[in-house]
Amino acid sequence: MRLLLTLALLLLALPAQAQTVLELGGASAGGNSSASASYSLVGTVGQLQPVGVSTGADEVFAGLWHMLSEDTDGDGWPDAVDCDPNDATISPSATEIPNDGIDQDCDGSDSSDCFADTDGDGFGSTSVIASADTDCLDAGESDVDTDCDDSDPNAYPGATETCDAVDSNCDGDLVDGDADLDGDGLPDCADDDLDGDGVDNDSDCEPADPTIYAGAIDQPDDGIDQDCSGADTVSCWVDPDGDGWGAGNLTLHEATCPAGMAPVDGDCDEQNPAINPGAAEVCNGLVDDDCDPTTDEHDDADGDTWTICDGDCADDDALTHPGAVELCDSVDNDCDVTTGEDETDADSDGSRVCDGDCDDADAMVFPGAPELCDGIDNDCDGAPETNAEVESFLWYLDADGDGFGDMDAPHPDGLDCDQPEPGYVVADTDCDDTDPLVHPDAEEICNGIDDDCDPDTDLDGTDLDADGDTYRPCDEDCDDTDPSLGPDAVEICDDGIDNDCNSLTDRDDAVCSGAGCTGCSAATIAGTASPVAGLLLLALGLRRRRPGARP
Question: How far apart, in Å, are the Cα atoms of 45 and each of 13, 15, 79, 82, 238?
């Protein structure tokens, strides 16, 4: 069949008139065929013999007219048809050997062995199959054998790895960057035993801790329930006297110790509940109350010849015992339960009376304090201050007599503790020393002046005229952004605006009257405003003040 196809292609390449003299399917009349002869299909209708005519120089081969040709390699195929006339193993009828890079059957390419791609993901397994052609692109074929699971179309090299127990990208790694707490090669999201302790997550009370699981050995007294029993195991000792301290046999119990047992040991007398490591030593002879023989009340630990039973309130301090001298150390040195009043710091200036504070009620008075111009012994040295040791002041002229001086007019004599002459003060914060009503203690009023020498208090806008109508908010300008509105403005009826800032709209303002005032009340239209309204208007007029007026 392959030979016939090859010859048919050659036939189609001939001119149309040549095809009329060729015959498929057997020898033509008057001609013959020979399997051992070499023929070549050449020439045109004028060169080929008509059907039924033979000249001896040409014969019919495979049902087609051919002219005699050479067969160099003797493989039974003329050189004109043989794709390699010098190699007897290569001819149109030869058997193709796959994957050797040689076209044995002269079909134009070497045949290939392909790999089975059962799941159709484009990647084959290691199973070799013969290809129907040479490209391994048909269904069930692949030219690579790198599929790690040829039964799963979602598993192949380069596939997107998901957090499961499948090696989707065929890299041999199931984790692929996901968390793997127990390092078992499974990502935590697909691991039924996160901590690798042999217990499934659903049954593990601490699935992320390999030391905690049902069956683990519980470590007593550590506050951790290692065996997932619901409580930590605690150590308990026999406590016959019930004082909370045990001795004798140790047993382990869950959660709490039962009656007759204690969670701590060390009791040196289980017959006396008053004797245990938590008890205080008392003067009761030679009884070791706290189960610590080194702290007996009859011992003199600090060597001051006083014991606890003798009244020593601090047997670790030889300077503290009954009769000791009170020191300036805030300690009850003589064990009388009190410290001296001279050991307190009543004014919190860091100095006590016993430290030399000569006035423990004044925080400006203590040893080392700076001397001030106040006639007081501030540094407690027993001597009055002098100009050489005190903090002197600069004095400033107070021309307007308001108690605040002009910072630009200091006294020429400079620093001094005493007032150099009348009319000079220490404060230099007067912003206008020509006006006694202007100073830091003055009240800010509606006059356009910085009365209290603090410009920030004028920045609230109440003492400013923003719209230039000579009225400010503190002058009862009801809208300081509109110069047409103000206490002297003419009320415009029926516009719904309080033009004259008297807090009355058209409906109630007596200025508006007549039937044309649609927004006015009936009383206003009739010109019969109530006496109360008239008094209100009079009161509002009296409250108005012109700019710059002082109270």
Answer: 13, 8, 22, 24, 127
Residue given tokens 């040991």 in the structure block: 265
Q: Per-residue pLDDT tens for 68-127?
A: 568 898 888 888 888 999 999 999 888 877 777 788 888 777 777 788 999 999 898 888
Q: What is the DSSP string of 458-490?
A: GTTSTT--TTSSS--GGGT-S-TT-TT-STTSP
Buried b (16+ CB within 10 A) or exposed e, 373-386: beebbbbbeeeebe
**Which among 148, 116, 143 has a CA at the least distance from the CA of 129?**
116
- Answer whether 0.70 is exceeded by the pTM: no
**What is the distance in angstroms between the CA of the first residue and the CA of the last residue of the chain?**
129
- Which stretches of 344-436 are assigned E, i.e. beta strand? 396-397, 424-425
The C-alpha atoms of residue 356 and residue 521 are separated, in whole angstroms, by 84
Give the span between the Cα atoms of 234 and 251, in whole angstroms.
9
Q: Tell me: the pLDDT tens digits for 174-198?
A: 888 788 888 888 888 878 888 888 8
